[in-house]
Each structure stands twice: as structure tokens, then as C-alpha cells.
Amino acid sequence: MRVSDFHFDLPEELIAQHPPEERGASRMLVLDRGRNKEQDAGGVRFIDAMFRDLPEHLQPGDLLVLNDSRVLPARLFAVRAGLGTQAGSPRPSGVVEVLLTEEVADQTKENAGILRFAQNDKSDSFAQNDVPGKQPALWRVLVKPAKKVRVGETLLFCEAGGEVVLTAEVVEAGEFGERTLRFAPVEDFYGVVGRIGHMPLPPYIRREQSVQPDTVEDRERYQTVYSHELGSAAAPTAGLHFTAEVLAALRARGVEIASLTLHVGLGTFQPVRVAEVKDIRLHAERYTLPAATADALNRALAEGRRVVAVGTTTTRTLEHIAEQMALRTEGERHVPGAKAPFDSAPVMPGLKSRPISEPLSGKFSEALSGKFTEALSGKFAEALSGKFTEALSGKFSEALSGKFTEALSGKFTEALSGKFVAHSGVTSIFIGPGHRFRIVGGLLTNFHLPESTLLMLVAALTGDREMVLAAYAHAVREKYRFYSYGDCMLVV
To answer: Residue 114 belongs to a domain with what CATH number?
Structure first.
């Protein structure tokens, strides 16, 4: 299948440049797969609704999963050191746009701090907590213009008055404008970024950010009302429609709400640069599944309740976790498009595959049920059978002889026995045609760019590329607003 098979024409005037005046006042196109199956051949029916009607289109007992990542003001502007430019001038020559996409320094909470947006603080204040001293920050970024920014060069980042507040050395160069920067230590890196950075609006939303500060509208409306964990280089846009009132109405309807975190980066918004769908590879993005959400997923799947994802980032995270659980189960080798395993398990509502709910079998299961050391040999087996601390020395030995070993014998085995458990990780999963969904049975999402991996994900969930393209054609005719600040689509 070719990437061009997912092309559609979109009039430029339908690309939303601003959010609706009132949050939650968006339109919503409903694609009901069950209802469409009842239509005559060639007849596909869509429901034109409003986002505020979302509770009416979900069922009591549905589990709605949100992505609570918060957007960092990740677009910065720098000048190149040593070029004689006037950093304080309105449009200095040599200006370089820098988009922070991911922090890559391997730092623990003790020596780098956990960088979070305060839970109850929705202002533009960013905080770096628990940091005993200044630390350098290593970041993967995108730069424009890329050709001029070479390894070894220094970039200067200034406040409005011209004072240099951040400096960074280019330490690595990649393709398509990717660079790695090492920022010099500062007292509060995220606080500085919060002052000089701009919201990373996509290029189709036209703003002159290099010469103008962000508007209050963009600072507020390019965040979800439930965002909490700071770290995204773009908004999980399906969540931008939600208000406290809609969330309350969903709960009153009997819809359970849970959240996870996937920090949006290149894996979500990097353009496709290959011709064939089979050749698509995505960048990795970091995620966290909290314990409360893991428990909610286990209950929903055990009780046969539908899981509805808010956004493609939530969908990819859930399906990645489910796929990894399946790959750890002896005998299963997931192949996109193949029949799902566990034919004796009940089919979840809205799913095309069956849940991962069967116990492990065979030697791998025995290993996790108490015979782990028998499945291994040599010193590693001895280590795991009680001599682990002898194989190590110092404080690391003490650490691994305590709670860590309890985790290995507890929650780790639980994860490998078919249940969701709290954890963090990275995913580069691409969901395209032929993917068998193990968890997600419904999706709320915005309208996506032609030939994008996000559009391919929506087509995969419906199982019908033509149906999705027909829905987009309907949206164009009805003048829905597209992309990040636009309207949304519900697939159930």
C-alpha cells in the first residue's frame, strides 16, 4: 500500500487558525461502525454532532483514556555565536529556530530533578524541583535553517531585552534538521524556557513567533484542561475540546475516565518521507502508565467494557503496551493483519481482536511462577536464586537485595501474566492498515493531515480506508474545521 493512498484535497480556508471562541464548542463528526454495517452497499451514514454531545454517543461503563501530557513552550529562537549579529535587534540576522523535542540526558531525580508543571498551577510558571545544583541539559531538537547549524557551533538564546539567558553547543547532527544540543548549566532551565519559549504551534497555524510573543489564547488553548505532566513538543489535540463540564457529564453518564502520559514528539508529528506504508518507521516517544489506569484497564477488559482512547497518542500507547505483553507470551508472534490469539477469550465490544487475558504457558510461564532460576544457567541463575548480592558490591548490591527483588517477584511477573501494571517506557509503534487492535475499541480524534501516520491509524481502527476518506470528504463538504485547532471525529 502506498502513502499516496491516504491523500485527500483540503481547501486552505478549512485549516483552523484559531480555536473556537468557547472551549468545547467544536463540531464532532460521528462514525458509527456498527450502524454503517447496517447500511445498503455503498451507503455510509455519518452523524453531524457537537462535541458537547459526546456523553450521548458513549455507553455507561465505557472507559475513556486521556493523555495528560502538558505542552512545553518548546519553540525557541537563537543567534549563532561569533557572527557579529545583534542579538537584541527585532530581526537579527542569523536567527535559528530551535524546537525542543526530547530531553535525552540520563539523569535521575536526585541529580537532575523531576521537571513537572505544578498540578494545581495552570499559569505560565514552570518549575524545576528538587535540584541541589545546576545541571547541563542535553536535548534532541529540530533546527531551521538546518544547513547552517553545524556540530561544534554555539547558539545563544536571549530574553526580549537582549540578555543571553541560555547557551547551547551543537554536539550531534542528524537528518531533516535533527540536532542534539548541550545547554550550559543554569539555575532553573525550565523556568527560563517558560519565559523565552513559544508554544510549539504547527506550521500550518500562521504566527510570527520570531518577532511576537505568544497570545494569551495560544498559551491557554494549546493545552488541555487536564494536562499535568510537562514534556510534550506538541499538544495531544483531541483533548483540547474537553471542559470540566463535559468531563462531569461523562462521569454522570457512567463513563469511567482514566489517564496516561505520552510526551508528544517526532513520532507523532514528523512528516512521512517514504512512498510505501510498509517502510514507515517512527521516532520513539516516552510514556507512563499509572497504577490507577492499569487497574482501570484490567477491570474494563475483565468485565467486557469498551475502551475509548482520546487521541492517537493514547491509542498508540495502549496498543504498544498490549503488543509488548503479547510478545512476552510464549508462542505469540504478532504480525499486523494476522488473526489475534486466545480464541477462547471473549471479544471486547468494539474490538477486532481478543484481549490479552490468558495465563502464560510452557517453560516461560514456569519460569515466572517460581522456576525462574531453573530456566537460566550459570552465575546469572545463582544471582537470581539468592546470590545476587554476592555477585555485586557496594550500595548497588544493597539496593538490589531489597525492594527491587520484591518487584521482580511481584509486579513484574504480574505484567507478564496478562495484566496491566504501572510502568514507564518508550514506544515507536506505527499503527497502520492490518493492525489488530487488542485494547482500543473507540477513538476521539481531530481531522489529520493527508498522507499522515495519524490518518492511517484512524483507517486501521475502522478497517476501511475508503470509509475514512469518505468521512473526510463529508467533513470538507460540510465545512468542518481541520487540524489542531479544528473540529473532531468520533469513531465507535
So the answer is: 2.40.10.240
